[in-house]
């Protein structure tokens, strides 16, 4: 998608601090971190949000969660981290491309926001 900031990051048109990349997804540090460890994992396929996950693309989401566990461990988060995805503008989604925030390195309060 030509106007999607995450598609531009994947294409290398916008710089990012890459952590991980494979043929299906891309992980990078958040530019405005909310925790000592804060990174995003995005699919390379343009899916607008969690409300567009289907039976057909669900295996991609499973792969992303495996990548989240691997990268979180590599960054020292161990088994203590939060994974967040917002669905729609009223829920705080500001980029119309499915993405998962991973936060760790501090106590997470509940409820969030």
Automatic annotation (TrEMBL):
SUPFAM superfamilies: HIT-like. A motif (Histidine triad motif) lies at residues 97-101. InterPro entries: Histidine_triad_CS, Histidine_triad_HIT, HIT-like, HIT-like_sf. Pfam families: HIT. The active site is at 99 (tele-amp-histidine intermediate). Signal peptide: none annotated. GO terms for molecular function: catalytic activity. CDD domains: PKCI_related. This is Histidine triad nucleotide-binding protein. It comes from Anaerotruncus massiliensis. The lineage of its organism: Bacteria, Bacillati, Bacillota, Clostridia, Eubacteriales.
